[in-house]
Amino acid sequence: MSEIKTIALLGQPNSGKSTLFNNLTGLHQRVGNWPGKTVEQAEGEFVFDGTTYKVIDLPGSYGLSANSEEEVVTRDYIQSGKADLVCILVDASQLERSLYMLADFVGIRLPVMLVLNMMDVAEAAGKKIDVAAIEKRLGVPVLGFSAAETERYPEFFKKMVSAIKTPVCLDSGSLREELVGGGELAEKTDNLISRIEAALGDFEYGVCEKIWIAEKLLEKDKLICGVVNEMLPFAHKNAIDAILDSEEGRDGGMLTGEAKYRWVSKIVRELATPKSIEKVFSKWDRIATHHIKGKFFAFGIMVVSLIACMILAFPGMGIGFGMQPVLQSLVERVGGALGVWPVVISFINLVLVGGTCITICMTSFIFAIIFVFRILEEIGYMARFSYAFDNWLSRLGLQGKAIMPLFSGIGCTAGAVCGTRVLDTRGQRLLALVLLWAIPCGSKVAVVLFLASTFFGSAAPLFGIGYVALIFASFYLSSRLFGKKLVPQNERVGMIMELPPYHKPHWKMIAAMVGRSTWGIFKKALKMILVVAALFWALSYAGDGNVENTLLYKIGNAIEPVTMFFGMRWELFVSYLGGMFSKEASLGIMSTLFNHTGEAFSLVTRVAASENLGEALASTISKPEALAFLFASMFNVPCVLAMGTTYREAGSFKWLATIMGYYLAISLGLAFIGYHIGLLIF
Amino acid sequence: MKNADFVDRLSLAEMGENRCGTVAQIEGDSRFISRIVSIGLTPGSAFTLLKNDKLSPVLVFCRDTVIAVNHKESSQIFVKVES
User: Fold this and answer.
1) What ipTM describes this predicted complex?
2) Are B34 and A67 inside 8 Å of each other by CB?
3) DSSP collapsed to 3 states, chain B
């Protein structure tokens, strides 16, 4: 076994950290949760020159203060000292602001390497950066880089290897000078920093220098305050409290912040030219950020994106749809000629072939959504969504850019679920997932409208309006029920964010990243769909094709007394369950059970609804039952793939089960109400 | 003395578009200060106000970056406007 080196990637949001992470590790990555935390942990590996490198993608944060759970995770990891090298990424096109992360890192004794990412963007904006001079000034390895350009990776590896071979930490001397000398507020800071350092005495805290601890105390960092409180003798503690409570001590966070930026400015203003303001805030952005035009513009982008998704998904859908009948008849003919048992042919067609084809269809929309979202994020438009819709969505506890995944839910829930990754915290993502499940995808709308027009004819539009009202009501309920826990009130500070500059998309890299994640999703989806299809096949198989000889019939009849409580006879309840697999399956099952079409009783049947299904349903099912089923269908679980992607994004089975349970309760609850009201009316 | 300096102080929320200024003072809890400092606004930072229409967050250009600050929060940031 060769040796393993650990590299931690640290950077602000939009610094290109995840691009670097993905390009370094490719398919060799795992996404899970940090132990005991609800924050996503991305970890991967790559081998270079016989050495294995483990890469930790730390959650993005603007600095090292431990305010949010993400930042606590980042801090804990850094302080654990597990990293052989901390690779700090900054956005070269916004050098001055983004170097704050480096300034905040000064005083931590861990080997670092600084990556000035997006040099291409900086150069295009007319910015010149003297990388060698910055390296000399800082005394640590510095690389001018562009993580999206795959051909530049040899430079990265070279720098990284030498940075690990001869590890250097940042020297805190020059920052100390800023904290104790220079600047109009320096006299106060000097006083404070030296006094706190004196009060700390011989206090030691892992990789953190005393000056760093003093800064964080002045910034009222909760973690450090807690540690100091616990570990320091009483007298020292009191001395520190007194300093922090003094008039200048209360402004400590501003004082240290100012000193850090002064430190950064000295590096940047000599060694790099600033950008021109015209290039930063274009006419384009004047429209995109206008309070009315900006929203129209954003809606326009959303509609275009949705259309683009449909176009991108089309080839995959076509292949999936087209292959199924061809393959199935092939299997039947070949199997028949070879004298294979019908049960085997049935299994191959209804589970293996059908399952694979349906997975291809479903995954193609996921591919399209990931692709379009990636582009929007890459060119920098996603942040404009946040700006335009923050006022609306903050009422639900969400960031403005959540509008994008929510809107694309109209196209496909499973894909939109993957799109929630654009949100910054796990709480935000989970809340968006909960809301998203209520938004009907195209297929669900089709089913609901079909049922409404079948049973209630000209009153169907009323159901459409009622449905929309119920969806908004469910948003309100969800944000009340889940919002407080997932997005705590103290994290709901108003928007403070940067609007990143527009970038040209790097197609090659986007295609590679999207290809990799789609392939990963496809493999998992295929397994899951095959298992569910096989299970359903086993329950619904009858040698003679008679529904009454299936296990499902027997189970269905046995539980009918319970399901009738919700107004659903067993046929309807099985259709409802089929709707959890796919909306088409729900209609397909109804066709088999009510219309006796002779179609195989299966989840993978792609005939949406047989011709006279409507009449058959209307003649068999009473109005109250129809009402119950209609309501149940409105808030039914989206589909098997949406469950899969939700599990992937939520990262926990518990959350998937919670969201499922929540929607089962809503849909069955509404079915119950609908049925019993229906009994009174009709 | 200190208070007298701020009698006619102006917050970011009240500032006109396309004007330049420097941050004079930021008020709020340590969490807010830490957020606003880490995104680049500190006392003494020079900036240009790009957009302030009272209906959407204020946009300023500071340290090579366009920064959006919610209206309510922007009234906690006090500025000196260049004439």
Assistant:
1) 0.88
2) yes
3) CHHHHCCCCEEHHHCCCCCEEEEEEECCCHHHHHHHHHCCCCCCCEEEEEECCCCCCEEEEECCEEEEECHHHHCCEEEEECC
